Amino acid sequence: DVKVTQSSRYLVKRTGEKVFLECVQDMDHENMFWYRQDPGLGLRLIYFSYDVKMKEKGDIPEGYSVSREKKERFSLILESASTNQTSMYLCASSYGSPGETQYFGPGTRLLVL
Amino acid sequence: GQQLNQSPQSMFIQEGEDVSMNCTSSSIFNTWLWYKQDPGEGPVLLIALYKAGELTSNGRLTAQFGITRKDSFLNISASIPSDVGIYFCAGGTGANSKLTFGKGITLSVRP
């Protein structure tokens, strides 16, 4: 079974803090993705990576950066957290092309005060 | 850009009833996927469809890849309380493109 894990299920941070969200997959998938999920807006792609050290902007990259130093790990960084970044963050991975079936982690619910 | 349409946003059914959900697009897709998200959890893949006209079952779930490649539907038969959650569709067009997701339908099942 594919397993995608995220470092935290719940996080509370203060405005201006630097926030790291970690995602690890154990299936040697090439592609990894970060989404945020907000009520009524569905899943919105922040960044994705199709190889180690490679990254591509998604639909809403502003205020975020990512890092992929190892194939199994994809980090999302909020350089200076703001209240409008309070959301559910979902990591996913897929094998082959970025259009293939994606497998999701359990999500991190982030609250920025 | 491409969009997938799922409506209504919410559905309320009685336990034991069957329910059908559609996902439509103005664009053609080569892959259709259906996910379910339980409250507070990440989406879990239910069914993947790779060929136009394909009909695939997974227990009480049945999904079909529309013949025009612009739609898909998911049927849940004999619903039970644990079917509650958000059901997402997603479409893929192949190499070098990302999945496109619908906004999801929240299903409630009354005992």
* N-to-C series of helices and strands of chain B: EEEEEEEEEEE
The residue ranges of chain A in which pLDDT falls below 50 over 5 or more consecutive positions are none
Percent strand of chain A equals over 45%
**Anisotropy-based shape of chain B:** globular
Q: Report the mean per-residue pLDDT of chain B as an integer.
A: 93
Question: Count the strands of chain B?
Answer: 11
The averaged pLDDT of chain A comes out at 93
What share of the residues of chain B does DSSP label as strand, in percent?
Answer: over 45%
Unreliable stretches of chain B: none
* Largest interface, chains and sizes: A-B, 23 and 26 residues
Q: Termini separation of chain B (Å)?
A: 40 Å
What is the N-to-C order of secondary-structure elements of chain A (H for helix, E for strand)?
Answer: EEEEEEEEEEE
Q: Bin the helical content of chain A.
A: under 10%
Number of helical elements of chain B: 0
What percent of residues of chain B adopt helix (DSSP H or I)? under 10%
N- to C-terminal distance of chain A? 37 Å
The major beta sheet of chain A can be summarized as: 7 strands, mixed
Structural class of chain A: mainly beta
Structural class of the secondary structure composition of chain B?
Answer: mainly beta
- Gyration radius from CA atoms of chain B, angstroms: 13 Å
Structure, explained:
The complex is a heterodimer of chains A (113) and B (111). Chain A is an all-beta fold. Chain A has strands at 4-6, 10-13, 19-25, 31-38, 42-49, 56-57, 64-70, 73-78, 87-94, 102-104, 108-112. Helix content of chain A is 0%, strand content 54%. In chain A, a hairpin with a 3-residue loop joins strand 4 and strand 5. The mean pLDDT of chain A is 93. By secondary structure, chain B is an all-beta fold. The radius of gyration of chain B is 13 Å and the shape is globular. Chain B starts with a strand and ends with a strand. In chain B, strand 4 (31-37) and strand 5 form a beta hairpin. In chain B, the strands form 2 sheets. In chain B, strands 2, 4, 5, 9, 10 and 11 form a 6-stranded mixed sheet that branches. Chains A and B meet through strand 5 and strand 10 of A and strand 4, strand 5 and strand 9 of B.
